[in-house]
Amino acid sequence: MKMTNAFKATVAAAALVAGGAQAQEVEVLHWWTAGGEAAALNVLKEDLAGQDIGWQDMPVAGGGGTQAMTVLRARVTSGNAPTAVQMLGFDIQDWAQEGALANLNALAEENNWGEVIPDALQRFATYEDQWVAAPVNVHSTNWVWADASIMEELGLEQPQSWEEFVAALEAAKEAGYVALAHGGQAWQDATLFDAVLMATGGPEFYQKTMIDLDMEALGSDTMKQVFDRMATLRGFVDDNFSGRDWNLASAMVINDEAAFQMMGDWAKGEFLNAGQTPGEDFLCFRFPGTQDQVLFNSDQFAMFSQGEGVSDEQAALAEAILSPEFQIAFNKVKGSVPARTDLDVSELDACGQQGYAEYKAAAESGNLFGSMAHGHANPAAVKNAMYDVITAHFNGEYDAETAVQELQTAVEINAM
Amino acid sequence: MTDISRTEPASRPFGDRFRDALPKLVLSPSVAMVAIFVYGFIAFTLYLSFSDSRVLPSYNLVGWKNYEFLFRIRAWDTAVTNLVIFGTLYIAICCALGLLLAILLDQKIRAEGFIRTVYLYPMALSFIVTGVAWKWFLDPGIGLEAVMRGWGWESFRFDWIKDSDMAIYTIVIAAVWQTSGFVMAMFLAGLRGIDGEILKAAQIDGASTFSLYRRIVIPQLRPAFMSAFVVLAHMAIKSYDLVVALTGGGPGNATEVPATFMYSYTFTRNQMGIGAASAVIMLMTIAAIIVPYLWSELREKK
Amino acid sequence: MATAPTSRFITAGTGDPTQPRAKGPRLSAHLPRVILYALLTLFCIYYLLPLYVMVANSLKPLSEITAGGMMALPDAWTLAPWQSAWSTAQIGVEATGLRPYFINSLVMVIPAVAISTILGALNGYVLTKWHFRGATLIFGLLLFGCFIPFQMVLIPMARMLGLMGLSGTVPGLIFVHLVYGIGFSTLYFRNYYAAFPTELVRAAQIDGAGFFRIFWRILLPSSGPIAVVCIIWQFTNIWNDFLFGASFADFDSQPMTVALNNLVNSSTGVKEYNVHFAGALMAAAPTLLVYIVAGRFFVRGLMAGSVKG
Predict the structure, then answer these.
(1) CATH architecture label of B49-299
(2) Residues of A in contact with B54 (CB under 8 A)
(3) What pTM was estimated for this model as a whole?
């Protein structure tokens, strides 16, 4: 039976190439394979099934999508591109630049996407004034997850500034807890770095260094201070952090071994799954000093051009992705918030509602920034070169001064 | 080697000529496949390494730029050094351990079949499967160190995987675990193939067990060493899954190897040109080691 | 790798190499049996430890694992993770478990292994028994092909598959495995046949037997041991391959390793380690079975073939 399916698909693909005949199916490449998120994607599948459009599932997990991007490249090169592909930030721009993506402008205009999607997201969803991707969600990365019982035991209040945060960490450490649960993987180090940089230099500095890649700002004393603060945080992490998966770091907070974890909103799922209640067993708040800012990454689905513009199935898929029902249903399980800013989110939990309100407020006030750690501030080459420096510094290979110099070199080599 | 395909040349009918060409015809699909899909692709990669390819292949030549960048990237130095350390230790330890195990198993052991299977089975598993188990086992917080301390050995330390200088050795441990059993099987096969008469004669001459092994047995295992070397070298160079599963190249980039470097520049960092350049350097290194070996091995038969 | 003397081939072929020789060097004089067995047991533990971690954790509830008991035996034994991994775990949008992918893998692996073994046998036969100018060079070139890093060939291979109309198909995937497996299968058979008495082939030729008839009637019947080695090798490599499977398979032909990776490597979801390990053991089951069943013939095949001079 499998063989027959494979055969049918080949014929279908051949037909597509040959005459542009429309097969009523979408093939979707994505990396959402964990229970909840995959189930949420099923909502989308059902929706399309209601319109008689088949869903061919092509999940490839690993490395936060890097594995899927490799597969995508092989697929496109072989002339067998999927219909729709989950993508992040600059990848969308890179593929649009190659001319591989379909233009969704007609659909966007009809459904008023320009109004409901903030500019910071449109920066990635559009290329040269053309809509090329449909945003699904917005994850924000500058969250702190705190153990409520430890906070209570030590009489700690939610820290509002860097100094208060350090004091809280100090108290937890003295009480014999791991102060900061952290996993030593490049992207986790960078997630921490993002928030520290925002808290230290403020939004303008973030814009200059991470997005505009301004050499002067990258080499400034403020940047050195950011690295110094990273070293301070390193002092609150246990010795065993290297290589630890983020969810094991979350488990440390869940099991009352560690007081705080700094991680994106997907960590919420771990807490909920362990039977914890937000506000009672664990607390969620913005990284101290970044209360008004939201650092985000946004999953979007890019539509690959099938020869003559957008196919009907692609249009149906894109429309379904931006439908309020799917945006709510999906983000409820995913831990992220809807990309559209005009929804009633009373179905989300406390942390989710807070996140959505802050997302909208940040979008209004120009405080919504793409996260460097998650590929929404600068291109992949620069991002990874920054990772190298941040991780090397966090592991004690560079002092702050060297790190600043290396950061400049990294940008110089890779920002071409 | 006797050659039976070249029979007396004369004017022959088509059928005969077809028959003479048949062996080459049978071989030709393989040769064609390898010519295109190995050597053709090597040529293609060589070309890319001189191009400005980023996300997808591009055909604009930019000279030696990719190579210049490559040698300015610190991680590349680390990757090359690591491959040398890893490759040397891995091959040496696998051979030594494989030989030791083969000799131990060759002592009329009860349950030899069972033990052999136990030593051999890791080869059957991919590191997608065993990576997490190894990662936990090596993690001082939950693995060996924690267990030993739990048993009361408070000062026990085994935190190599968290240590930039030592992490590469944990990769060796896991890699040896995977393939040493296979090497053992090769040596065991070699040992069993040695002519018992020679040994008997030597024993009668009063040779000690030790010198028997050193002077007679081990030299006879040379072909087994050679085969083991090919297999191990091939695995060392391709050790990608292992590193990704175990350390992801960390701490920092302390366990980066050329294979992970190449993958990350080609696919994650959208620097296909630099990735291709690293692939070319890697291939040249492989060729420098493997070609002389193949040449010396294959030449002998003449 | 020179041709071995005929006598040695016959000894090798008829004796059972999985049985210890009657006469051989013995360490016994220096090494008491107790120590010998202790050493062997110690190594058994080393090799079995990761398997223990996987099995033990696949049989406990997730709460026991996250509570920190990763090395301990389960307190509450459960088979639920196995059931989940096989039939209900979320791999893609549908909660299918690993079952369908298992079948996909079999559909791909069996033909790939069969074809590459047959092709390897034919190549080995031609290269040793129908020697021609340049044969050694060709063999060397085939063998060197084993050493190219697969990450490098991904993009050009995708292009070629597209041109051949094989992209995203099972035959395409089989083809890729064939191309990159040919070096090793040829190596095994070539070295094995090199030790096969050429006189027999010559005699058959004088009797008028043709190319294929000689292969079919004379060489193939005695190729059992090396075929086992080649099949084990190819089966292991192809079954465990992830890179090609992920890149060149289509949505309905993704192999087991890709599904396992989807199960294990989901980025931002809850990690059910017990289900992961159960899935991992399932993915490993066929190769493990092959090793256990054919392990005995494996050593024999190695002895008769690839490690011979």
Answers:
(1) Orthogonal Bundle (1.10)
(2) 94
(3) 0.82
